[in-house]
Amino acid sequence: MGEGLPELDPVVHGKVRLAVLSLLLTVEEAEFTWLREKTGSTDGNLGAQMLKLEEAGYVAMEKRFAGRKPQTVYRMTAKGREALAGYVAALKRLLGGAL
Amino acid sequence: MTDMDRNDGTTRDELVQRIALMEAMIAEGRQSTGRAGWIFVMWGVLYFAATGWVCYLPLRNWAWPVCMTTGMVVLASWQSRQRRAGAVRGPKSQTISAVWWTTGLAVSLFAVFGGITRHGEHTFALYLAAIVFFIGLAHAISAAILQWTMQGMVAAVWWGGGIAILFAPSPVAMLKIFLTATFFGQIVFGLYAMSLQRQRAVAERVMRHG
Question: A57, B128, B173, B195: most buried, per Cβ within 10 A?
Answer without folding.
Answer: B128
